Amino acid sequence: MERNKMETQKTGCGNNIRGRFLVLEGIDGSGKSTQVRLLAERLRNEGIPCDKTMEPTDGPFGSQIRQVLTGRIQADPRVLAPLFVADRLDHLLKEGNGLKARVEAGVTVICDRYYYSNYAYQSADLSMDWVIGANEPCRQILRPDLCLFLDVDPDAALERITRNRDHTELFEKKSRLIQTRKDYQEAFRRIGNEENIVTIDGSGSKEEIAERIWEAVRPLFIQSL
Ligand code: ADP
Ligand code: TYD
Question: Long-range pairs for 209-216 at CB < 8 Å and ≥24 separation?
Fold first, then answer.
């Protein structure tokens, strides 16, 4: 039965051929990239056309951002914040394979970070109201069907980062991880009633977390449309 409902969504679910736009958020080292990969595999196994992507992107604006994050370019936070917005708008609108066009063409897209990251990270240096306002064009263009916040203890996240990488970036210090987690919570308090945000317990094995995520995602693909 479940399977039949999935089949209906795969083949275009009646009148509605729009894909879903799913976002994973969390502090650095929370396991987002891992879970984006596992979720994409699961959706594809269900026969749902699915792409995965990330922000900052690997496009021209994203590569500028990465140079700032690794210290190769110095930039004031007031310069970095709108660079993230520019990168996001380019991601949404770029000709050929912009996010908006892909979702409208029926592809489900899973994105590792979106404007919620801007709210949480850039509000350390700028007012959250400013950051929310700056992202309003993105929100108008494409609001996620679901944002999954992978909630992980900062100590556990730091352990994962240092165990597996030979370098750390700007936001990967413990005090910053603690602050960012608080800022996510503050952002969700502010905008939560206008968005579909689900907090996922990010502790345990990769497979356990993937199962929790699947429970939250599955209802979006069961035909009730
Ligand atoms: P993020 O994208 O949020 O920074 P990653 O998915 O890259 O996080 O995970 C950071 C590191 O932690 C990776 O080396 C990954 O293999 C590892 N990792 C991810 N999930 C878990 C988990 N549940 N338990 C232990 N290690 C994990
Ligand atoms: P990334 O290298 O993808 O790290 P992770 O694997 O932890 O997701 O992300 C780069 C950094 O960019 C990360 O520390 C969060 C930060 N960031 C912002 O500060 N604002 C934003 O709008 C986005 C999308 C990311």
Answer: 209/31, 209/35, 209/150, 210/35, 210/38, 210/39, 210/42, 213/35, 213/38, 213/39, 213/148, 214/39, 214/42, 216/146, 216/148
User: pTM score, two decimals?
Assistant: 0.92
Residue 98 falls inside a structural domain: yes
With bands split at pLDDT 50, 70 and 90, how would you rate the model's confidence at 95?
very high
Domain containing 103 equals 21-221
Question: Does the beta carbon of 28 lie inside 6 Å of ligand 1?
Answer: yes
Q: Which atom of ligand 2 is nearest to the CA of 161?
A: 7
Which CATH number do you get for residue 63?
Answer: 3.40.50.300
pLDDT exceeds 90 at position 172: no
For the Cβ of 202 lying below 6 angstroms from any atom of ligand 1, the answer is no
pLDDT (tens digit, 9 = 90+) per residue, 178-214? 999 999 999 999 998 999 999 999 999 999 999 999 9
Q: Which of 216, 184, 206 is nearest to 110 (CA)?
A: 216
Residue nearest atom 9 of ligand 1, based on CA coordinates: 31
In the structure, which protein residues have their CB atom closer than 6 angstroms to any atom of ligand 2? 28, 32-33, 54-56, 69, 84, 112-113, 117-118, 121-122, 169, 171
In a domain, 191, yes or no: yes
How many independent structural domains does the chain possess?
1
Whether residue 193 has its Cβ less than 6 Å from ligand 1: no
For residues 29-53, average pLDDT: 97
Q: For residue 147, tell me if it sits in a domain.
A: yes
**Is 169 inside a domain boundary?**
yes
